[in-house]
Each structure stands twice: as C-alpha cells, then as structure tokens.
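Example 3.
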Amino acid sequence: MDTLLSGQLLFAALVSGSLYALVALGLNLVYGTLRLLNIAHGDLVMIGAYTAFWMISLFAIPPILSLFIAAALCALLGWAVYAGLFRRMLAKPELAKRVEANSLILFYGISVILQNLAALAFTSTSRGYQYLDTVITWQGISMTGNRLLSLGVAASVCFGALLFLRFHLFGWGLRAVIQRREAAQVVGVNLNRVQLLTICGGFAVAGVAGVLVSMTEQITPFMGFPFTIVAFVVIIIGGLGNIGAGVLAGFCLGLVETYGIALTSPGYRSILIYGLFVGVLLVRPEGIFTKAVRS
Amino acid sequence: MTTPMLSVSGLRAAYGPVQVLFDVDFDVEPGSVTTLIGANGAGKTTIMKSIAGLVAPAAGEISFEGRDITQAASHDRVDAGLCLIPEGRLVFPGMTVEQNLRLGAIAPAARAGHSEMLAEVFRRFPRLEERRGQQAGLMSGGEQQMLALGRGLMARPRLILMDEPTLGLAPVMVKQVFETIEELRATGFTILLAEQNAKVALELADRAYLLENGRVALSGSGAELLDSPDVRRAYLGM
C-alpha cells in the first residue's frame, strides 16, 4: 500500500504517460486532418532516437538541442511524404475515399523501409548514451534528471499543442478540418496548408518523443513498433481525431500501466494495455472521453 | 449592359464515368437573385460546388467579377468574395454558435473586421445571439440554416450561393428563409439560389434557369418561367 501511495510511483506513471500522450498526439493529428493511418509513426520515434544518439556521440551535441534537430528532420520527412505521396491522392475525391485504407498499406511499406535502412546504416546493435542520469531526491521521490526532462518536455509540448489548437486561428482551422472537411473548405480554410503543416507537425512531435526515449532506453532500428501500437491504443481510447481526449488518454494509459504493474507484476504489462484497449472497444467504441473533453 | 458578377460558360462536370453537367451557361447580374430550379439530380448542387471550388469541372470557364476562377482553390474564392451556404447546412456540430461564426471569418480578407461583422450577423439573426454558447449540432434544422447563412456572411461575400436552403425545414421556417433572401438582396448582396421549391423561388427571382439532366432547358425572368406551360406542368403541378 505504501508503494502505491508513494510519489515515486506517480512520477513513474507521469513520465510514461506523458510520453504516450506525446507519441499519440502526432498520430492523432495526422489521422484527424488527413485520415491517414500512419503505421510508420513509431519509426519516426526511432529516427528521433538515433538523431539524439549520433548527435551526442559524434558532435557532443546534447539531447536538449537534438530535440530541435530531430523535430526538423522528421518535419522534413513529413513534407516529403505529403508532397510525394499523398497530395494528389487527397485532392482527387475518388482516390481520397480509399486513401484511409491505402495509407495503411503505404505506411506499412514506409515502416519496413525505414527500419531496414536504419539496420543497414547503423546495424542492429543496441545503442545508448548517458545524459543527466544523476539522481535528484525531492520530497522523498528519487528522480533522474533525464526522466524529469522527459516529463517536462513531453507535457509542455502536449499542452502547448492543445493551447495552440484552442486559441490560434490556424488551430481553429485545423479543428474545423477534423470536424467537417468540406465545411472547412466552404468557410475558406486553406486545406492544403493545414494538411501540410499538420503532417510536418505530427511527424516532428514523434521525432521529439524519440529524443526523449533515447535518454533512458536502448536504441535499435526496431524500437518503433511498440510505440506505434501504444499510440493506436491511446487514440482509440481517447477517440480517433479527438486531440484533447487523446492527450488525456495517454496519461491515463501511463497510470493504468504503472499502477497495474505495481499491483500485479511486470509480466502483466501487455495484458493491462490490451485489456484496457479491448475493454474500451467493447464498452465505448467511440472513445471514453469523446463527450467530456470535446472542445 | 453591365458585366455579370458571375459568368459560367460551357461548364461540364463528371463523377467518374458519369457526366452530370453538359455545357451549362448562365450569368448572375450584380444585385440580383438568380434561381436555378430543377428536379433532384438535375445538377444544381454540382453547379454550386463547381463555383465554390469543391468539384473540379471537366471543362468550361467560371469567372467572378471579370476574373477567371476556374482553377482557383476554394479558399481563394472565399477570399475573393463568393461564399457557399452548402446543402445540408454543414455547420461544425461540436463547436458553439459563436465559434462557428468566428470560423466563417477565417479568410484573410474577413479577419480584420470580424467583430463588427459578428455584431451585424447578430443584428440580422437575434436568435443566434441568444444561442451563441450552444453547440451547433444540438440546434434545430431552421436554426442551423440560420447559422450556416450567418457563418457565410462572416466572410463578407458579395455573392452568396445558397444550395437548397429550405430542404427539410418546416413551412414557417421556409417562409423565413425566403424573407431573409429578400432582405439580403435589398441590402446589396447578389444571390444565386438553387431550390426545389420552384414556385416561391421563381416568384422571388430576377432571373431563373430551369435545369434538366445537366442542361439548361429554359431561361428567362422569374415571371416568364412561372408562366411557362412546361414549368407549370412539371414543377408547379398545375
């Protein structure tokens, strides 16, 4: 009981929850505005992680700066994918109808290519580095600096994105596209620009998440897939295309996972995550927060 | 001879292999109400969507105030001063009335004066002001139509395209929609109206076009079409 009520466990839950929320945020934005199911989303996390690793190993650039480099790199990738693959598909109504199903297959291909390119270039050896790993104790809670940084960055990016969607006119246009694409065009939202900037932003956020992950975990070319799965679980719990609910669901998944494991054992991790996922699909397939957090 | 505000010539459109518009020509004079009547499937909505830039025409030319806009993106057309009030209203259901109206002024040309315009829309439709905090999806069809029109006005258009504004509305609301259209004309707006409710639409129209199977079958003043035996038999049930 003591461990359950300790701040230590809460801190661990918040660290993983904020990361889940961040990874899912990018996926949700891209799905909401472009209706693209990005199976390669986790591989962008992997690219972000490698960026941080090589930057610190080769040029001694600390991860806190790599955050920006990884974001820019992934945004560039988003631009390439949009301009090269999807712009024309989305512009033609007859192709746009099938784009959701087609995107799943296309992104699966992109995922395989990215993973194998990474394996080819960096080998499949696990990599890692040390950064801010001294323990800080505050109010009886022991935290490493890198976890604290991870929580701070992930939570700020998530809430910054939500504030932007709420208060900036571009964010309004983005939400309009999510709610009713054709109506958004009717009022004069620049659909092309919203889609391009969303895919760049969504990819960039995944890159940022990758840098954060790399500070505490091993880096391999195949580390991305579990993040893709977690992100899908999170946005389905929150409600597809519902950005605020997705962030909340990310934190919830972190809490359920951490406290669930503390009550049972680490062997139950997958059962907890997928159990929650299946449970939500059975009881509220539209997502548990769709009404409550609707903005 | 004034130049028309909107000029459509040789317009063709198709959905996949199915052609729905065949060389449609018509003009809209500034300050007028121009009406397109015709049965379901005659091509009225496709014409409206082509003018708004939601459907890419297969051939033909659309020009607005003398400028060719056939290839322009939909948001550029809103910015240029034409605005569609779409069939089925298409309000943003999860947003409040006020947020819907704010989004109506998202076009760069409309941004600066949006608060004056909001006051103007509330003056025209006091009901929207009473309901400003309500979620749009929870309102009645008539209120949603009012909101869709208010949202369109927020873009400060000179030409308003209204696609089936009375569809599914109670008779008392239908009457109100037509009164609103008359008021808009009186305050200087130009209106292109697509309507199944042929009698009232023709009584109101300065100029009218009858569409049949994607072609203009008949054109003239509203009164001329009302007197035409073909129109009377097929559309007015007389």
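Strands of chain A lie at 135-138, 141-144. The two ends of chain A are 37 Å apart (CA to CA).
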